[in-house]
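Project outcomes to date are best conveyed with an example. Our students and postdoctoral researchers have been running inverse folding experiments weekly, and each run begins with a structure described purely in tokens. The record below, which covers 565 residues, was selected by the lab manager from last quarter's runs and is presented without edits.
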């Protein structure tokens, strides 16, 4: 370990931790226990020798021989114990010698590297930065000090007036940030970098910088930093301070941005596909043209605490949010005009003054007003919404809508796919001009056409099915050319709600709901199969049944509690 005295860093021997001391004494203790047990066994044999040989022809001779052997065994055991203890002590001495040699080598490497870090030559400074990174990996005990040194180097040189006046990009500062981001995670080093006060723009810009795969920048203070076009794919950026940062065109696919601060950050055309952004603050951030497909803005943390991203006032014009998880996210005053929302989950999202002009694939779970649109959230209601509107009472309002999961089509599609090779194989096997060959081939192809027609019918009926939740009831609508109500459950009559998922359902995101209505005890529960995201439907129904109808003060308060928990 290094200790600072004035302006000099010196090496200090780190004392052994409790578990290290325990391991150091474990083997001698085991030897002592074994020796004690052996002596105890030999003592019992010594004492009972006369009893063991009571019926022998020469008892006294047998007892004497046995006891002589016991004495020999005791002498050998003592000698073996002495040799083992001597070897253990020798090993300890060698370990102490090796540790002193390593400490001396580390001390020499550190001193030489620090001297080179202040060199006027850029090549020497670069070598020193990378040498410190290698030293931090070789000597984990010294990583905290090396982090402090590299952080101070970035802070001081990024604000150096002489460098600022030169205007040239500082490769050594960029290298120091990369080294800090690539250091291993240690519990003893909670602060991975202290860059508060650094000016990472201009000559110290990190634009276009390629970080190593899975870099860890958690907790980094990068406010106002220039990271335009930087490659941060798969990086850990949890709790990072990126407010006002320039991340235009940055590559952040699969990055983790839990609780990151991105207020007023510029993320134009950035790639955030598959990123995890729960708890991040993106208020007033600029994300036009950004790729946010499959991004997760909400996470269920241990203890069933729901954390969501904040997107109030964010500019998402033209952004790709396909299959993004946006449940409970606050999109107040956000700009989503011409955004791609195919497959996105916006259930319980707060959409107030949100501009959805020209947005594509607006999820059905987004509440549409009775008149089809208003000044705050302008978009045409999709066809399924119109189908639901045909069966609603005047006082009813749609809370959530969804189509049954496509897994419902798997049996029909498998039958069709399986029938095709059977038909082809039958035609090949029964070749010839005989009537039986023609009949067999015709039957095989007829079965294929029947299975294909069945599959098309299943697709058509599936396309016409809608599961809708209103403020009064849950209804399942079917029909191809007309609208039929297959299932109707009054929410006020619900006494129990359950959902389950098979392993296949967990893999593809669907499950089965069981809803019990008030009535005779023998009444079977109503089952709704192939429900997409049954946990979200469960939350929606529970919100209404337990918290009051949507739009009431109680329900709104419950949603706020869930949103910010």
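After processing, the design step wrote out the following sequence:
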């Amino acid at each position: 370990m290094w200790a600072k005295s004035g302006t000099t860093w010196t090496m200090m021997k780190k004392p052994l931790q409790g578990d290290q001391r325990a391991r150091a004494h474990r083997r001698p203790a085991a030897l002592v226990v074994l020796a004690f047990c052996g002596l105890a066994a030999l003592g019992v044999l010594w004492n009972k020798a006369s009893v063991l040989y009571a019926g022998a022809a020469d008892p006294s001779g047998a007892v004497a021989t046995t006891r002589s052997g016991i004495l020999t065994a005791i002498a050998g055991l003592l000698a073996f114990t002495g040799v083992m203890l001597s070897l253990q002590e020798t090993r300890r001495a060698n370990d102490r010698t090796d540790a002193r040699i390593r400490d001396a080598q580390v001390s020499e490497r550190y001193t030489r590297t620090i001297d080179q870090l202040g060199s006027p030559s850029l090549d020497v400074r670069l070598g020193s930065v990378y040498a410190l990174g290698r030293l931090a990996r070789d000597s984990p005990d010294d990583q905290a000090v090396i982090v402090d040194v590299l952080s101070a180097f970035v802070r001081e040189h990024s604000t150096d007036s002489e460098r600022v006046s030169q205007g040239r990009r500082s490769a050594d500062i960029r290298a120091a940030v990369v080294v800090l981001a690539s250091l291993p995670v240690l519990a003893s080093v909670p602060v991975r970098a202290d860059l508060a006060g650094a000016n990472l723009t201009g000559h110290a810009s990190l634009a276009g910088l390629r970080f190593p795969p899975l870099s860890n920048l958690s907790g980094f203070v990068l406010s106002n930093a220039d990271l335009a076009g930087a490659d941060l794919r798969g990086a850990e950026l949890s709790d990072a301070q990126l407010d006002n940062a320039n991340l235009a065109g940055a590559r952040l696919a699969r990055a983790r941005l839990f609780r990151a601060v991105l207020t007023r950050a510029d993320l134009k055309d950035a790639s955030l596909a598959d990123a995890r952004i729960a708890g991040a603050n993106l208020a007033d951030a600029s994300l036009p043209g950004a790729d946010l497909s499959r991004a997760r803005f909400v996470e269920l943390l241990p203890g069933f605490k729901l954390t969501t991203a904040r997107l109030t006032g964010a500019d998402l014009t033209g952004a790709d949010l396909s299959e993004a998880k946006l449940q409970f996210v606050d999109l107040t005053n956000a700009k989503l005009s011409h955004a791609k929302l195919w497959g996105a989950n916006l259930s319980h999202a707060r959409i107030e003054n949100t501009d959805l002009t020209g947005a594509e694939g607006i999820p059905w779970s987004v509440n549409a007003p009775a008149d089809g649109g208003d000044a705050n959230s302008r978009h045409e209601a999709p066809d399924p919404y119109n189908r639901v509107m045909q069966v609603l009472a005047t006082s009813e309002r749609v809370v959530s809508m969804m189509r049954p999961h496509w897994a419902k089509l798997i049996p029909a599609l498998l039958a069709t796919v399986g029938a095709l090779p059977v038909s082809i194989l039958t035609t090949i096997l029964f070749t010839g001009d005989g009537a039986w060959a023609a009949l067999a081939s015709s039957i095989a192809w007829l079965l294929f056409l029947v299975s294909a027609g069945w599959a098309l019918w299943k697709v058509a009926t599936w396309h016409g099915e809608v599961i809708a939740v209103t403020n009064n009831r849950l209804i399942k609508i079917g029909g191809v050319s007309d609208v039929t109500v297959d299932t109707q459950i009054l929410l006020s009559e619900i006494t129990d709600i359950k959902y389950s998922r098979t392993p296949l359902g967990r893999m593809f995101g669907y499950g089965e709901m069981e809803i019990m209505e008030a009535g005779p005890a023998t009444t079977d529960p109503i089952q709704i199969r192939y429900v997409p995201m049954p946990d979200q439907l469960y939350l929606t129904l529970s919100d209404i049944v337990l918290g009051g109808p949507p739009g009431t003060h109680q329900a709104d308060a419950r949603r706020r509690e869930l949103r910010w928990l």
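Residues 1-22, 367-382, 548-565 have pLDDT under 50 and may be disordered. DSSP finds twelve helices and eleven strands in the chain. The training component of this project remains on track.
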